[in-house]
Write a structure and sequence with these properties.
globular; 7-stranded antiparallel sheet; 177 residues
Length: 177
Amino acid sequence: MRQLVIGLMLLISITAQASDADRLKQAGFPAQVEGLALKNQAVLNYLWADVYAAALYAQADLTARQAWDQQKALRLVLYYFRNIDRADVIKAASATLERQQANAGLNPEIARLHARFRDIRSGDRYALDFRPGRGLNLEINGQVVFSSSDDALARAYLGIWLAPEGLSDELRDKLLD
């Protein structure tokens, strides 16, 4: 019986990995974007459902972790597989920022950023693009819909995915490794 359970667990794991590979292929992340190189990509699963694929880009000569730790240029792209209500996205982001205690003094800028969100549809692509000295851009399907020169906002908001106690430790580890 134990061997059967182990066999089933392995089969489920292999199937999930193949599914993630298929999903990443579907997301179609290019190897380079706007002078940055693809470092890592992963799929966020929640309650056995694929929610989005995430890709993290940084300078070619840095690892993803070095770029994050040294506050260098980063681009996080999310390709959504499901429809998600705008209110649910804002609620999850706000709860994460509060848990991370990252929103101190940033509430007006966070509110401005959240005001630019819309209901997400399957196939939408959101990107957070941070460049030191320029700040943060939010892009929805290739269009810049929000900009802020506040590097602290960029650090806090990217931290939803890349800092400890974010949305998913597993996703964070995959993106930063």
